[in-house]
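Thread: Modeling a multi-component assembly for a lab meeting

Hi all, long-time lurker, first post. My supervisor asked me to bring a structural picture of a complex we are working on to next week's group meeting, and I have zero experience with this. I have the sequence lines for every component (479 residues in total). Could someone generate the structure of the whole assembly? Inputs are pasted exactly as I received them:
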Amino acid sequence: METGAPALVELKGVNKHFGDLHVLRDIDLTVRKGEVLVVIGPSGSGKSTLCRAINRLETIDAGEIRVDGKPLPAEGKELARLRAEVGMVFQSFNLFAHKTVLDNVTLGPRKVRGTAKAAAEQEALDLLDRVGVKNQARKMPAQLSGGQQQRVAIARALAMHPKVMLFDEPTSALDPEMVNEVLDAMVALAREGMTMIVVTHEMGFARKAADRVVFMADGQIVEEADPDTFFTAPRSDRAKDFLSKILVH
Amino acid sequence: MDDDYLSGFTALLVQYDVLGAFWTNIQLTFFGALLALVVGTVLAVMRISPLPSLAWAGGAYVNIVRNTPLTVIMTFLVLGAWTQLGLSLSTNFTWNFFWFGVVGLGFYHASFVCEAIRAGVNTVPVGQAEAARAIGLPFLSAARLVILPQAFRGAIAPLGNTLIALLKNSTVAAAASVTWETSSVMKTMIEFQPNYIWEIFLTFAIGYVILVIPIGLLTTWMSNRLAVKR
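Re: Modeling a multi-component assembly
Sure thing. I ran the full set together rather than chain by chain. Output:
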């Protein structure tokens, strides 16, 4: 990432409650163009909610979220347009179960962007090739392994040419032997300069691909640092405690 | 049972055009089901829409119509909408009644179709809708392209039950003055030929059983065959 790149995603004073639970507390965060931000933290720390708030799959109670300078619109056409520019990869893949792999990838370009069928399919096949599942294009999602499904989900998001990609625990639902094939695709994407916000428990990915690590606990950003500093010399007690629990094994 | 008795009964079936009566109920069912499916789908989309006013209107329709007796709706259509308000659905006197019957059946069963589809929507994981929204599909496109195609497959069995109810309820079109449908024809036959009362009743009862059973078999088969694999 070039330093001084323009801010692409900005959060200012973001707060959210689920009933009595204060899941996001005064979140201020800026992600620059081309930056790979990894969000880590214990379960229930609000990191997934933060990720989902950026394309308004979760609404917020207070504060402001801007994507590429524009505040998040409320429901409606404007919001749909914004979501088309923010790619999202879910923990549970969420491929459209009644459509083939190829149709999963072409649906957005064809119905949202109005791309012609042949052009959309050509690009979809190129994207599927990039993530290594081109030979599965005609299959239904249920016929694929979890790792393959998640790579299709990445291709589906990329087909919209998003400005930023959000990953909400993309490897948490995978069998261990399939984690790497998904992480490899993500590392490749990071190397190509994609702006990425990744909520994950994969510390290896954070070390390898992140420009910056954000540590969250109890709905707050507790610590922000480059990966080397964070993993070798965490400042806060919460981060030290968290790292000691996951890194000893 | 002598031959005269039997031939007397078969002559009755021709005299009162029993097959024609069944054909009328099949037509009522076909057009009624088509109307119910269209209106019911619109209602279901309203009820799952993010606009509270639309969701409320859909819910209000379902709860009012579903809880009103069909006979009351039919009687209202003919005595209220036609006789009093002067609404007409066809210039042909008898077809006018037929189409009022279709309208009554369609709008009444639309509320059940809506609830069947909503049950189907509940079989679609919420992640499917989130993924559809995340690639930038507006609500209606997400509903049309992602949610409803999967919801319909999950709703085939309850939709089949609604179709069966609609077929049997098509006899209530009698209340909309469709006097040439099965229950009205049966009533006339029993009135004039009470010596054949059991035969007449069984003819109509078995006729409906023959119509209903294949619908049940077909929807069970389709429901298994079209199930979305996850």
